Amino acid sequence: MQLPSPLHQILYNSASFFIKRDDLIDPFVSGNKWRKLKYILLDAAAKNKNHLVTFGGAYSNHLLAAAAAAAKHHLQVTAFVRGEEVNNPMLSLCKIFGMQLYFVDRESYKNKPRLYELHFGSNKAAYFIDEGGASEEATIGCTEIIDELTEQFDYIFCAAGTGTTAAGLLKGINQLALATQLHIVPVLKGGDFIKDEIFKYEKNLTKLHLHTDYHFGGYAKTTPELISFIKDFTSKTGVLIDPVYTGKMFYAINDLIESKQISKDAKILAIHTGGLFGILGMIDEFSKIS
């Protein structure tokens, strides 16, 4: 396990910026998944819970991280998977780590607390973990990203799904009274809701900036333009990025610099949140683009 995660400086399209390589923390419990689960696992242990129960989609990086983390800590782990039963490389890895999978229809999946109570309400060993690890404990873990920085930045960029990592980053910036501005790239269509999710955990939003036009059609959606960018970025920097989260963030950084909305001379830090196994769900798309 590589902690604190290293800081790498790269040059891409004549712009230089830094990357916080949280993807290198652990091969399976990587990036913000490790950050989120750190205090969740400590809370479960404090409450003498040894059966993790969580939620996610068929290509969820959170499910893989939870499965790997449970195996490392000798815990049982169960996941409710959204949608019809499928077999894919991501879920196969979850099973190898010992995760029990329950596939549920999308309507039932919407009420996660009810699903948990229905199946595990009487199980005193069970511990509820929301989709993506969203929780106060998760934000505390993500705040530590800021604590690890040994220099200050003008802008910090991060991709966002649930907004939990963003809330932790903003909390850390505010706690240390940094001048740093936090730029968040929601990967879902209509990502303005992220602001409300962040507000649940951190009330001071003055240093928060949302860029909601880089979703490329919505969550886990992509386009030939995004795939081409990812292949170009990775081949020129040696840093592998994914089409669900980090690819959209780095595309946004490059576009904002090229359009002069932010200066290429600014000191920029991008948080690499891992999740690289998400590429497996779109590997055919990469083979189509030369």
Q: What are the defining features of this structure?
A:
290 residues; alpha/beta; Rossmann fold; four-stranded parallel beta sheet; 10 strands; globular
Summarize the structure.
39% of the residues lie in helices and 19% in strands.
Textual characterization of the structure:
This protein has about 290 residues and is an alpha/beta fold. It folds into 2 domains: about 5-25 and about 140-290, Rossmann fold; about 35-135, Rossmann fold. It is built from 11 helices and 10 strands. The strands form 2 sheets. Strands 1-2-10-7-8-9 form a 6-stranded mixed beta sheet, with helices on both faces. Strand 4, helix 3 (about 90-95) and strand 5 (about 100-105) form a beta-alpha-beta unit. Helix 2 (about 60-70) runs parallel beside helix 3 and helix 6 crosses helix 7.
User: What's the story with the biggest beta sheet?
Assistant: 6 strands, mixed
Strands, count: 10
Category by helix and strand content: alpha/beta
Helix count equals 11
Question: How much of the sequence is in beta strands?
Answer: 15-25%
Shape: globular
Q: Report helical residue fraction.
A: 25-40%
Distance between the termini: 35 Å
Q: What order do the strands of the largest sheet run in, or round the barrel if closed?
A: 1-2-10-7-8-9
At the first level of CATH, the class of the largest domain is: Alpha Beta
SSE arrangement, N to C: EEHEHEHEHHEHEHEHEHHEH
* Shape-level CATH architecture of the largest domain: 3-Layer(aba) Sandwich
What would you report as the Rg, rounded to the nearest angstrom? 18 Å
Poorly predicted regions are none
- Mean pLDDT, nearest integer? 96
Q: Could you please say which CATH topology of the largest domain applies here?
A: Rossmann fold
| Integer tally of domains | 2
